[in-house]
Amino acid sequence: MGAARHGGFIPWDDDIDVSMPREEHEKFINISYHELKFPYEIKNIHNDENYLHPFLRIVDVRVQTTVTTANKESYALVYIDIFTTDGLPDYRISRYFHVYFFLFKKMLFHLSVFNERVNQEKKRPLYERLIIKFCNRFDISRLFNKKKRILAADKLLRKYSFYKKKHCSPQLWGQYKTKALFPTEWFSDGVLLPFEDIQIVVPTEYKNYLSKLYGADYMELPPEEKRTTHATELIFINGELNEKI
Length: 245
Hints:
The chain is an alpha+beta fold. The chain contains seven helices and nine strands; from the N terminus they run αβαβββααααββββαβ.
């Protein structure tokens, strides 16, 4: 969206999402262990026992942020998220069973990290608000093993190859749920769009992609009340505590 509509970062947003086919994602991890130099590192659920985000992050170890939208204040190194684009079953019924089974596993994971991760300020449909109200009253997160829940969901996503299936999803961990299912041919080799002072690769059918997620009027700016961002604050840099930037 940033590249297509703004030619760079969305002015009121504060991050960029990157996705790559699972196979390329695994190659990228292996290369990163050797090529990334200080202050950059990669974090994922397999190389850090305490890391409980469902996607890979490239972090800058010099800079820390705090997030205040959940029940418990949490801290994170400044980062870029890298999602996986995974294949989906070819047959429609099998595809939707697979996706809804994943969404169930995703929900269990979110329940396990409810106090640390679930945004209490985000506008949500009624059923989600009711679940959050229930979880705020009864702390059920202690009933779940966080690591087992995230590994179970990740294992399911790995089941189908992007390159061997006719449909895929680049962000089932994101907010779009069943809207984020696309024909694999929409991605193809990709095309280049300007982003700030570089060129980035976007899906070949990026217009269809954006229309499916945001509607045919995706090039129009949303009203100001819907221009949401992440509630983060930079709290130190280069290890110097209490230096507000």
